[in-house]
Amino acid sequence: MSKLLNQLGLATRAGKLVTGDELVLKAIRSSEAKLVIVAGDASSNTRKKFRDKCATYKVPLMIGFDRERLGTSVGRPERVVLALTDQGFADMIAKEIVKTSEVEYIE
């Protein structure tokens, strides 16, 4: 498991990560979300919805990994979308994103 996925687990334990469509959308709208991560195997409709919402609210978006690996990293079953609500964790993970080849889209 990559260092980035381990950091997602750390953010979860610190209470600085939300998962699930509705909670993530709420975090984006309220400007709580500092970085949104969508699984690479999410439906094209889901990817488009979060790409558009993040662009509107100027929240960085990353598409990568698969739903199983994202879920495992945060200690839950498959997860399609995650949002980091702490700028420190978002910055730490953004630095790791540059180093990994498993991310297909960063905005």
Automatic annotation (TrEMBL):
UniProt organism field: Paenibacillus faecis
UniProt name for this protein: 50S ribosomal protein L7ae
Source taxonomy: Bacteria, Bacillati, Bacillota, Bacilli, Bacillales
Residue span(s) of domain Ribosomal protein eL8/eL30/eS12/Gadd45: 3-90
GO molecular function (one): RNA binding
Coiled-coil region list: none
Pfam families reported in the protein's UniProt record: Ribosomal_L7Ae
Record's GO cellular component terms: ribonucleoprotein complex; ribosome
Keyword Ribonucleoprotein: yes
Keywords annotated in UniProt: Ribonucleoprotein, Ribosomal protein
